[in-house]
Amino acid sequence: MSLLAKMLADQGHDVTWWTSTFDHTHKRQRFRRDESVRAGKGLVLRLIHARPYSANISVDRLVNHYQVARGFERLAAVVAPEHQPDVIFATMPTVELAAAAARFGHDRGIPVVVDVRDLHPDIYLSLIPRIARPLGRLALTPLYRDLRTCLKLATGIVAIAPSFLAWALRHAGRAERSSDAVFPLAYPELDVSAEQLSVAEIELREAGVRSEMKIIWYVGTFNRWIDLETVIRAAGILSDEGQTDIQFVLSGSGGFDEEWRRQAAHLRNVIFTGWIDIPKIVCMRSVAFAGLAPYQPGFLTVGNKLFEYMAGGLPILLSIGGDAKTIIEQHDAGIAYEGKNAESLAAAIRKMLVPGVQQRMATNSLKAYREHFSASKVYGAMVNFILGFARSAANAKNR
């Protein structure tokens, strides 16, 4: 969203980005009250104060989302008519804020584009045992009501994958129109100096990264949707087979950090680097053999790992099916393995070790990124799509 906002601002548009004071990634409050921050020419952040939460799946998080939506309604209601937007782009999640934005736009005749990036609240149901899902569905009635509201009131719907758009249209109760589109997740070019790269290389070496080995790399948060336990067991299988030229490098941190470090403590072919910055990410992309996208079964989205690895020209080892699997198979840019199955992951790595396979997939991965998934290309097209609604609304008023 920061890339999209910056692109719009750079084109001379005034952008107001509404979000929470609470930093979801690092679980900390940015401010203790509602705040407005100018983040560059043409870009203003409107931060709405809401309750913090420590767990991504929790009642406190639902309360936070509710408070942000109500805060938006309160603050947006007093915006003077001359300062109201020409178009609203409402990303979902959160469902609550998207619904509030859709109601605001609908009541004032402002076009609203709803952007579907996660299948909320279905993702909550996926965490409940099947036998209890009818009760879970009942408990989530307010969220499903907000979901239908934002999608039915939307002037247009965009989604990160075809199946996501189809899902949204089912909840909207209508067929696809020219005002709907698919824009995949994308990843920006990373600009790093030679000096920064040199320092990163030294620090990673000190952390145990061995660039002369075939590095199977994961970078990201250690949360409940990521399955590094299976990765660690696969590392054990390959170690027992005598595969001494493979190293698993796990970059990141989160709630499962201590547990996964304990599980891997006996393995010499697994190292943890902790959080890494952009120069280290660029360095790791240049030395890694393959990128890991080890999602838990039931993960209901595409995930940004694919495009992060593609931007570095890395083939992908992927644990889920759906749109994500379609992408890597369509571009011959990686190998899918069975989630929670360590032997399946070990077999996928063995397949990638076959002479010529990794090189072919690495070439295809970078080609797919440049042609389809670069941020400048994807979000440039999305900017034009969004602005089209503002132009159409302005033309209608002038008739």
List keywords for this structure.
single chain, alpha/beta, Rossmann fold, 2 domains, four-stranded parallel beta sheet, 16 helices, 16% strand
Name the shape in a single word. Answer: globular
Number of domains: 2
Low-confidence parts: none
How many strand segments? 15
CATH superfamily of the largest domain: Glycogen Phosphorylase B
Mean pLDDT: 94
What's the CATH architecture name of the largest domain? 3-Layer(aba) Sandwich
Based on helices, strands and strand pairing, what is the structural class? alpha/beta
CATH fold type of the largest domain: Rossmann fold
Q: Order of strands side by side in the largest beta sheet?
A: 12-11-10-13-14-15
- Termini Cα gap: 33 Å
Percentage of residues assigned to helices: 40-55%
Binned strand content: 15-25%
Number of helices: 16
Rounded to an integer, what's the Rg over CA atoms? 22 Å
CATH class annotation of the largest domain? Alpha Beta
